[in-house]
Input
Amino acid sequence: MGTGNKRKAAVDTNACVACGCCVKVCPMSAIQVWRGIRAEVDEARCVGCGRCVRECPASVIVLREVQV
Ligand code: SF4
Ligand code: SF4
Output
């Protein structure tokens, strides 16, 4: 991994069931459930810790490499 890469959480929004489990475990308050419909990640806050990925009961969050 280069110094210009960081990991960020990404939600498959079509498969998200809006349970809010990811919101509760995120230490950076980087996920919110938008209008009770789907989770959205604020990439500026996300530190790529992966807690939301492990917590999501629908397994719809992944960590992806992004260029910064
Ligand atoms: S990877 Fe960590 S910081 Fe990023 S949204 Fe998930 S729980 Fe929050
Ligand atoms: S834990 Fe998974 S299913 Fe639940 S709101 Fe978050 S992304 Fe959606």
The radius of gyration is 11 Å.
